[in-house]
Design a protein that fits this description.
Layout: E1 3-7, H1 11-23, E2 27-31, H2 34-43, E3 50-54, H3 62-71, E4 78-83, H4 87-96, E5 100-104, H5 108-130, E6 141-144, E7 147-150, E8 155-158, E9 161-164, H6 167-178, E10 183-185, H7 186-193, H8 203-216, E11 226-229, E12 233-236
Parallel strand pairs: 1-2, 1-3, 3-4, 4-5
Antiparallel strand pairs: 6-7, 7-8, 8-9, 10-12, 11-12
Helix pairs in contact: 2-3, 4-8
This protein binds calcium ion.
Calcium ion binds next to loops.
Length: about 240
Amino acid sequence: MTRVLVVEDEQHLAEGLRFNLEAEGYEVQVADSGEAALGVLLAGAQRFDVVILDIMLPGVDGFHVMSEMRLGGQFIPTLMLTARGRPDDVLRGFAAGADDYLTKPFDLSILIARIHGLLRRRDWLLSSTNRGSGPTDERDTFTFDGKTVSFDTLELRVGDRVFPLTLMEANLLRYLIRYEGKPVSRKSMLEEVWALHEDTDTRPIDNFIVRLRRYIEDDPKRPRHLLTVRGIGYRFIAAPGLD
Ligand code: CA
């Protein structure tokens, strides 16, 4: 059964979410503060498939919870609830490690569709890493220039260092690797990796690229693997200087 942790201090909203998500067949647990959420998540005694995380919380806020989760090695797909008209919140949320966001107030059917999207992308990531039969199949690891990405364990190894990747970081890297050598537009990344359409702000992608560059580039300011393609997006080069 899919288990959802709802982190929300407004009781009527939290109980409304519980009621509706349970009606969808999910098992729901509510944490009414950031501290309570971190207590549950970092203890690791319970397994969750998705976290719905409000930003405005008493005590530590959703951004803090998000970054502490990731620092604590919890890479559960997480959707943040942001206030309408605050694009900065979206960017901060992604920077802290969020996988998706929804602005309040939201339509319940949209929330459920987003949860399905997160679970589908997680399953896609897990299943595509387990196939590996034919030569064109995506493997569970990809090695380039002394770096190895493990898509099943969501880790990037660079020499002796291991960087944990979030689901979305791994998905974005996989997508760029799939089109190795070719320019990939920000719009296609939003659609294929995040399943976002319309006129979604593409700046979060740039934040993701900045983070990936910190992991894989010797000098993130002079990238050799993750190149900017002006006016379009990015291009991944596995072996710089050999192409
Ligand atoms: Ca709140």
